[in-house]
Amino acid sequence: MMASAQQNLVQYVKPIIGTSKMGHTYPGATVPFGAVQLSPETDTLSYEVNGKYNGDVYKYCAGYKYEDKTITGFSHTHFSGTGHSDLGDFLIMPTQGKLQLNPGVASNPKGGYRSAYSHANEVAEAGYYRVKLDDDNITAELTSTTRVGMHQYTFPKSDQSHIILDLMAGIYNYEDKTVWTYVRVVNDTLVTGYRQTNGWARTRTVYFAMSFSKPFKSYGRKSYDPKQAYRGFWGKFNQEQNFPEIAGKKIKMFFDFDTQEGEKIKIKFALSPVSQENALQNMRAEISGWDFEKVKAQAQATWNKELNKIQVSTSNDNKINFYTALYHANINPTTYTDVNGEYKGLDQGIHKADGFTNYTTFSLWDTYRALHPFFNITQPSRSNDMVKSMLAHYDQSSLHMLPIWSHYANDNWCMSGYHSVSVISDAIIKGTYTGDANKALDACVATAKHRDYEGIGYYMDKGYIPAEKSGISVSNNLEYSYDDWSIAQLAKKLNRMDIYDEFIKRSNNWKNNYDSASGFMRPKLSDGTFKKSFDPKDTEGQGFIEGNSWNYSFFVPQDPASLIDLMGGKRKFAMRLDTLFTMHLPDEFFAHTEDITREGIIGGYVHGNEPAHHIVYLYNWTDQPWKTQAQVRHILNMQYKPTADGLGGNDDCGQMSAWYMFSSLGFYPVAPGSDVYALGSPLVNHGVINLENGKTFTVEAIKQSDKNIYVEKVLLNGKEITDHKIKHADITNGGKLTFYMSAKPKK
């Protein structure tokens, strides 16, 4: 079957979904996997207050909070859906009237350069954002290419119109976060420079080139630098007004214009990880003229092409949820290569990506589960480049480790496990990676044997991590066991049986934290006894990262059959799953965990955070697969809504969204590194995946309805499936998966 004709699918993307409460998405303009994410900021919270972590800053991981009533400006870099943050580079704000260089406070927006705004005057689409800034009567519009953000500001008549470039602003900001800033005013329409910050990424330098559609009449800077012991002899100049070379830690620039009523001033703002020259080259390559509408149309056409890789028919609300999920899934990882192929490496040197696009923003603890497996179906070429990026990271790493959480030529070491090995194994096993598979396996093994990283030495020597040595000893053991299984699968494929034997043995270490007396995964002390004080409902101090034992005790995706045996067989195991989905989890048990809130919980099952994402599919390993079907549909309808607060947890760089799409189509990768998908209950009436190889894979749900959530039978290319699973090749070879739906479970 050939690919289907293009539909207008951009109309179903609502970037505002997830911008309220816990979603942590942003509404601004970006293109698929773009290096620029040009989006509004709605406040200026500091990471710390009086030397302590400021918990409120967590609401601003994406810079924008739907509940806020003011906008402080538009900056060029953002994470989508994360539970920690950085970025927010190069904040631009158009104003008119008396120049104000302080953002002011939300309760009095007129006291600073920020402005009140209304959602009634706000439009957020794939690749385009517009808002009216009420205080200055300026309409702001944003669009983007891969490496360039384009702004269009419609001003009133004024001889005091300004564009502010705030080089101090940032997300998860703190007093000394900006290490150094440099600005060079090349002429009356072109400014270049760079900024280096020390945040989640320790050594992050971003270069820029900024071009105006109209010459500014004057410009200046204000420095907020503290008094330095040594300043050299730059004091010979007045650097505040019309001075072309500025450097310091705390700099704000302003550019002044005369404007007519309705006059549009446009800005092209290009980024580079390498140099000012490369930023300018990126700008010239990606946006030649000043036609804002053309750039917007191009951004939306690029999105539409990506969205058409999956064409579904379902209700309008479900379409909005599905295509917004597909949009969010195609934001990260982000391009980290200039148009000339150069990028900054982990060694802080300049490298040239030879025959691949280098990517960053690998939130791997989240995304190895479903996002990267999703790319192996819908984006195999990009998935190949992502693996190549991980191996380049490994080559440049002084610690000889694959990325844990890759971020702008840094590893921020966030979260646990070494899940690059899962992504790499999955890509090679599914035939996506074209590089040297044996070299990739060597990198996986070296990472998994890095003894001084998060208890790996204890894990290797004792088969578990003693609770005295780590606050997250149990979840680390479970995650390492899964990762080691994925290494073993890769070794088996490459016929390196010595590595297979070593890692398949390691992959059974999870059993060492299983307490048969209580039936839970439990912290174990150095002397081999289980920690005495233990509550499987609690997320605090029980040996787990962002979760509790009720959820993590099911984290053996690589071997559900052995877990079921240990837990007393299929019937008892299904009853335990029933209890998880129906129990009540009082607030006190997750009061100390930012990433878990009531919105993302069903019973005691936490969907709003990742460790339990495979659990609903485990009923397939019991004799009660209809419970997978019912619960999948319940989660799809309860945890995803077409509203600003429509996500029950952080989208986490597309992982929550990938879960939605897989589950809507009726199958899910329980254990990446295997070529098997578990079947569930599709939400769509009909879906077509247009594969990169030119073939199509179709999902059809006969008698689909809100009541018919159970599967009577499933056919693959007309042949009945009885074991509730399909293989990766069944999809990539093209074909048809037909579900016959019913209101009654098939027992």
TrEMBL record:
What SUPFAM superfamilies does the record point to? Six-hairpin glycosidases (SSF48208)
Q: What region holds the Glycosyl hydrolase family 92 N-terminal domain?
A: 12-272
Coiled-coil residues are none
Q: Name one GO molecular function term.
A: hydrolase activity
Q: One Pfam family for this entry, by name?
A: Glyco_hydro_92
Listed A to Z, the keywords are: Calcium, Hydrolase
The cofactors required by this protein are:
Ca(2+)
Q: Which InterPro entries does its entry note?
A: 6-hairpin_glycosidase_sf, GH-type_carb-bd, GH92_a_mannosidase_put, GH92_N, Glyco_hydro_92, PNGase
Ranges for domain Glycosyl hydrolase family: 278-742
Subunit relationships: Monomer.
Annotated protein name in UniProt? Sugar hydrolase
